[in-house]
Structures are given as structure tokens and as C-alpha cells.
From TrEMBL:
PROSITE patterns: ZINC_FINGER_C2H2_1, ZINC_FINGER_C2H2_2. Transmembrane segments: none annotated. This is C2H2-type domain-containing protein. SMART domains: ZnF_C2H2. Keywords: Metal-binding, Zinc, Zinc-finger. The lineage of its organism: Eukaryota, Metazoa, Ecdysozoa, Arthropoda, Hexapoda. One of its GO terms (molecular function) is zinc ion binding. The keyword Zinc applies. Gene3D superfamilies: Classic Zinc Finger. Residues 178-207 form the C2H2-type domain. It comes from the Eukaryota. Pfam families: zf-C2H2_2. Belongs to the ZNF277 family.
């Protein structure tokens, strides 16, 4: 589990232009001189950073590792490998290291959340509608709703979308090239294309095309698992997952039936309990409960038990199937699911009262 990072000091540094090297006092502007920096750490410190150009906020990434290397020698933290022809050993910072992988994921998630927050509130978004003469100005989510309400074009839940400008630009390119949004077949003219998209109900993006993953915030929550967008619209659903109760082994394919069970058997009405939380807080709450139950610890009083039955009866008897203080679970470490592919998380937005 990835503990909360203290980025406070590093953040102030990231506003400065120069970042100090991982192992020596030299400073580099990583925005403009990344290749110089990479060459320096390769030549002078025998460090390789895999795929450095794709790391979000590389300044914070470097600060994180510099702090680690100040505490413990690099030999203890990073495996050394021999790179072909030479006998020299090199330290490779890559996603093969758990710490590195989680750090990159956290930076990516943070960058996405920051962008999403901007897109949610920015009212200066301007675009000519792709499907009518409207010249739109306002919030991105309202344009997405316009596409859905007036043109029946389904891009997904506006609250789950991110990097919307990019997405719109991509769609515009497809349409200009007379390609169908969904099947990407090319047509001879705009009218035939429009007809095809309407008749075949292809006014939506292709959920199996991984290119679109980056536009859906929920895809960022897990490091490896690619979220399918089947939860977005019921009619896209082709895989049925079973969802497991947060407190016992019962599972169901219907999240709302499962919630009914939790509310009658465990006196935990997920909808009521979490209605004042935002989406990410709900994600964190689920991950927190999963972790506590997995560790055989009560979610409210943190008491430990020998087995799942004892934990369940404790929480039952003393009424501890209750949400703890938000501060307990609203921590960065709970962005990460306790169980891989926890389908409860996929259906969070489908829970009704
Ligand atoms: Zn250096
Ligand atoms: Zn329009
Ligand atoms: Zn099509
Ligand atoms: Zn249960
Ligand atoms: Zn308890």
C-alpha cells in the first residue's frame, strides 16, 4: 500500500525552474533540458529512468527519489543491471519497482484530477458544435450534454470525462475524414455518414477501442486494470461482473440488490451514508472498507479479530457497520483498490436510493 506522500516541500520546488539532480547538487530545468539531465544521470550516476518523457510532473518524480536516496543508498533501493556491451552496472528506475510504479500512477492521477477540476469549472470553453450550427460557449459538461440531448451523441457521463478538448478534436478529425465514430468505416460524403451513424446507432464512441481510455477518469483509478465503459450506459453492457458485499461473502450481479442486502443485513445503506461524499471519496471509502475487512479489522473502531466471522459478528452486534470519520479514509492511499478488479467500484455511479 502506498502511504500518503508528503509533497509539500517538493511542490514549492516544482514552481522553480530548476530541479536538483537525484544524487548531486547540479540543477536542471527538466522542462527544457530533460535529455541533458538524463544524459547526466546516465554518465555520472549510472541511473536510467525508463520512459522518462511520459512521466507526469517529472519534477515531483525526481524529488521523490532524491529524498529516498538521501535516506538510503541507491544500491538498497534500486536493482542494478548490466546493460549489454559494458560490464558496468546501471540502476534502472522503472515500473518494475513497486514504489516507482505507484509513484508514476499517483502523479498521473494527480495531473488528471487537476485537469478535471479545471474542466469542471472553466466556463470559457468555446467550440462550434460538431453536429449543428451552434457556436457553443460555456462549460464542457454542458456541451457534452448538448451533444447527448440534441444530437443523441453519447460520449459518456460528463462527470467522468477528462481531457475533453482533446476528445472533441479527435472526434472532429474523424468526422472531417468522413469516418464513423463507432465503427470507423469511411464514407463517401457527410450525408451518407450521418445516415449510417443514425441508422446503426453509431453515434457513440467504440467502447472496445483502448484509445479512448484516457478520456475517462475512472480508468485512472487502477494501475493495471483497464476499466470498460459498460457501466456508462446500460445498453453497452456485455460483461456481467459479480459484485461482492463489503461485509460478507455474498455476491450479486445487481449493485442495487447488493445494496439492499447491505442495508437489511448489515444496516449499512450505501446510498444514504455516502450521498454527501464526492465520487472519489466514495471510491476511497470502498477501498478503505475492503482493506479493513481484509485485515480483519473493524471499520469503525479498528479492533482486530482472528477470523472473518468474529469480525462480522462484532460489527453486527455493536453496530459498527458505520462510516468512520471522513478523515480516516479520505487519504491518497485509498485511491488504490484493495482487490484487483473490484467490481463494486465499477458500479458506484449506478447506486440508487
Ligand atoms: Zn547528478
Ligand atoms: Zn449541436
Ligand atoms: Zn459505424
Ligand atoms: Zn453482506
Ligand atoms: Zn468495532
Amino acid at each position: 500500500m502506498f502511504g500518503p506522500l508528503s509533497f509539500k516541500d517538493s511542490q514549492t520546488q516544482s514552481n522553480e525552474l530548476e530541479t536538483q539532480c537525484l544524487l548531486c547538487p547540479l540543477k536542471f530545468n527538466l522542462k527544457t533540458c530533460l535529455p541533458f539531465f538524463l544524459k547526466h544521470i546516465f554518465d555520472d550516476h549510472r541511473i536510467v529512468i525508463e520512459d522518462a518523457q511520459h512521466i507526469n510532473n517529472i519534477q515531483l518524480y525526481i524529488c521523490h527519489w532524491r529524498e529516498k536516496f538521501a535516506q538510503r543508498p541507491i544500491e538498497e533501493l534500486v536493482p542494478a543491471v548490466t546493460i549489454s556491451s559494458s560490464d558496468l552496472k546501471y540502476f534502472v528506475l522503472s515500473m518494475l519497482l513497486n514504489d516507482d510504479k505507484q509513484l508514476r500512477h499517483k502523479l498521473k492521477l494527480d495531473a488528471m484530477l487537476e485537469r478535471q477540476e479545471f474542466e469542471r469549472t472553466d466556463t470559457a470553453f468555446k467550440t462550434a458544435c460538431l453536429f449543428c450550427k451552434l457556436s457553443f460557449e460555456g462549460k464542457r459538461c454542458d456541451y457534452i450534454s448538448h451533444l447527448s440531448n440534441d444530437h443523441n451523441v453519447r460520449l459518456g457521463n460528463p462527470h467522468n470525462l477528462v481531457y475533453v478538448d482533446d476528445l472533441i478534436e479527435h472526434i472532429e478529425k474523424l468526422l472531417n475524414n468522413l469516418k464513423c465514430l463507432y465503427c470507423e468505416k469511411t464514407f463517401t460524403d457527410r450525408i451518407t455518414l450521418k445516415d449510417h451513424m443514425r441508422k446503426k446507432q453509431h453515434k457513440r464512441i467504440n467502447p472496445t477501442n483502448t484509445f479512448y481510455d484516457k478520456y475517462y477518469a475512472t480508468n485512472y483509478l487502477e494501475e493495471d486494470y483497464r476499466w470498460d465503459r459498460s457501466g456508462e450506459y446500460a445498453d453497452w453492457k456485455d460483461v456481467e461482473d459479480t459484485i461482492t458485499c463489503l461485509y460478507c461473502n455474498l455476491s450479486d450481479k445487481d449493485i442495487n440488490k447488493l445494496c439492499l442486502h447491505m442495508s437489511s443485513k448489515h444496516q449499512f445503506n450505501f446510498y444514504n451514508v455516502t450521498k454527501h461524499l464526492d465520487f472519489y471519496q466514495r471510491v476511497k471509502l470502498v477501498n478503505y472498507i475492503r482493506r479493513q475487512v481484509h485485515r480483519l479489522q473493524c471499520i469503525l473502531c479498528d479492533a482486530s479479530f482472528d477470523n472473518a466471522d468474529k469480525l462480522e459478528s462484532h460489527m453486527q452486534e455493536v453496530g459498527h457497520c458505520r462510516m468512520p470519520n471522513v478523515k480516516v479514509f479520505d487519504q491518497p492511499e485509498f485511491y488504490f483498490p484493495t482487490f484487483e478488479n473490484d467490481s463494486f467500484l465499477h458500479y458506484l455511479e449506478s447506486i440508487d436510493d
